[in-house]
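# step 3/5: fold
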Amino acid sequence: MDYYNGYWAPFQTTIGQNDINIGGDNIIGYSDLNFVGIQFLVDAPTINASSMTRFHVDVQPREDIQPGDFLTIRVADVGPDNEFGTGDDSSGEIRLDNSKLVNGEWYSLDVAFSELAGLTGRSNLAQIVFVSDATISNIYVDNIYFYDDGGSGPTGPTAAAPAPTQGAANVISVFSDAYTNINSNLNPDWGQATQVSEVSINGNNTLLYAGLNYQGLELESSTDVSGMEFLHIDYWTANSADLNAFLISTGPVETGNTLSVPTSGWASVDIPLGDFSPVDLADIIQFKFDGNGDIYLDNIYFYKASGGGDTPTTAAPTPTRAPADVISLFSNAYTNVPVDTWRTDWSSATLEDIQIQGNDTKKYTSLDFVGVETTGGNLVDASAMTHFHVDIWTPNMTTFRIKLVDFGADGAFDGGDDSDHELVFENPAQGQWISYDLPLSDFTGLASSTNMAQYIFSGVPVGGGTVYVDNVYFYKQ
């Protein structure tokens, strides 16, 4: 290796590598990560991995993972001339989102070169790059290697499927250790060649279809899932080239959905139940899977997001950021700074202070726009912060907007140095909590954040929207 921490100034902030040893095992630690490169090009020769089929790396986040956090891992080849920027280099990458990464837990990535789109050669591999854009600041890295799987890939997952987070009251579960499952026959005799077993992965019961051609799953009785919104499935496969999941109602009437295979670790899908039309959702009797390969399945359940309807049945997610890194305007999780008003006189919406599961929440109805103010002696200096956070829940908004306004150095509106910027979010998910973690750098019209004074929420339908708001705060990543 040339190095495990190429400091590529002036943009790299990563501090590393901090080599540590745990139980005799050498591990790389990176902190303040935005991006960092491992290189084998100058003092070390490039790597010819043309006879290899896969890339492996183990990654462990060392901090709480938030919605929107991610880690991108890129593999780069410089081409036959062994120089970057000459036209024959290429690279491919894979992105690990917050569903795959958990604070303090190892995630093992085994990815086929064929899945690294853009990597057209691997005879002159020169770099491996980790990129988080500062969404994840601290990670451990170990076991970085290329290997030939002989066409079979890993034999099975080493980590359990992600733990579900849906409230049990909003779930009809078929197979999951996280819920009480309805009665079903996991292996009916349909003349299939598939071998069915239940295996334990890190203590978690998991369904294995070995040598899949097709496989059924029969519910003990007809089940009405018409009040649900999605079918959730976690699945893992290293050697499948074809996988489909079907719902079946009496008739039989069946409709399938294609699942993307092979996977890089566990894959999670949430399929809108409308995609299974014309299956009768009030009369579900069976599941069917067909395709090929060895398939691991877990957390098969129907659910409705936060209860659906017009009102959230669960509170907004509880923030986990350290109080020292937060300036909170409204959250039960923190000590809030003074706010003049959560509904200015020039607002058109109606404000109601409510509680959801004992958690204080703002409810805005007939929303056209509403202003929140921290003016006068309550101006907020957010210059040390990097992000603005807000959680919202809406049953009917099709557009949601957030505007931040800074009054400038004189602390007065229309003083000549005030500035603002608005971000627009089309088609926010309805009937579930949405967490927005917005880099202040995205508010490009905001010239300063030293005298934050106004926070304006607006959207469509004009004059008719309803939005529940919680956990409004600035934070530094």
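# step 4/5: annotate
The chain has a mean pLDDT of 89.
# step 5/5: archive (pending)
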